[in-house]
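Sequence, please.
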């Protein structure tokens, strides 16, 4: 009796697991995509080429501004060193206590 009960419980678990794996619709029609278009393959390819050439990498609505500096690297370093020397900007580690 013990072997029979164990066999039936294993069979029930296996059947339940198999049922869960196949719980979708039989034909899967809810995922089917249907397209009805009158455009030709050449029109779509032309549109893709135009989009690739004119695509902007900046996200729509972004306020990204590019800035081209005309300052010399040595001059900027000298200004930073002068600001540190005069105490306008801190230098070294900051200790809160």
């Amino acid at each position: 009796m013990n072997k029979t009960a164990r066999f039936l419980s294993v069979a029930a678990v296996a059947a339940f697991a198999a049922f869960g794996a196949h719980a979708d619709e039989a034909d899967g029609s809810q995922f089917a995509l249907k397209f009805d278009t009158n455009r030709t393959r050449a029109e779509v390819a032309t549109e893709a080429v135009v989009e690739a050439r004119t695509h902007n990498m900046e996200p729509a609505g972004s306020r990204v501004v590019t800035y081209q500096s005309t300052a010399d690297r040595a001059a900027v370093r000298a200004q930073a060193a002068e600001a540190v020397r005069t105490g306008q900007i801190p230098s070294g580690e900051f200790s809160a206590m």
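The helical segments are 2-21, 41-54, 73-86.
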